[in-house]
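Shipment paperwork, digital attachment
Item: protein structure file
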Amino acid sequence: MIPLIFHTSRLTVLAASRALLTAELHKPQYFPMLLGAALPAEWPTGEYDRAAMQFFLEQLTAGGRTAAGWYGWYALRKATEQVPRTLVGAGGFMGPPDAAGLAEIGYSIAADWRGQGLGTELVSGLVQHAADTGAVRRLLAHTTADNKPSQGVLVANGFAATGFDEDDRLRFERAVGPGDTAGRA
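Attachment content:
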């Protein structure tokens, strides 16, 4: 089983669990209490929507303990004197790596928290986490051609554009390996 929490300089990144996803989907009034964090004004955000939550819940339910950590992750901004611990984004993997060690990564940052480098920090932590598992050799990510900030996050984390997919989204890839230097505090 892989670790279900990691830290970057400003974030605590927590793997989604069946309890958290069930609360988020069906008892949203309890979700911030279970998470131990304030919610941003806009939640869920971006491509992290109810369909993604449901997909992650179904995968965790079907896969049991071995699925933990291979799907959704919550990015929590660490508390400061001015701001309480706050959910600022979501990210993670679309499942365990395939036989060749390829895994797909995704991420989204709440509108109130964009432009502060948190997306770059989240992706950096996810890259490092993937490397730490020893099972991932390449990471894949997609974004739309007009989403320049997302492209910047990927490029800053060592991803390179490799063309377009069947949905006309830009495809990015990067190698991952032991000793990967993606940032984590």
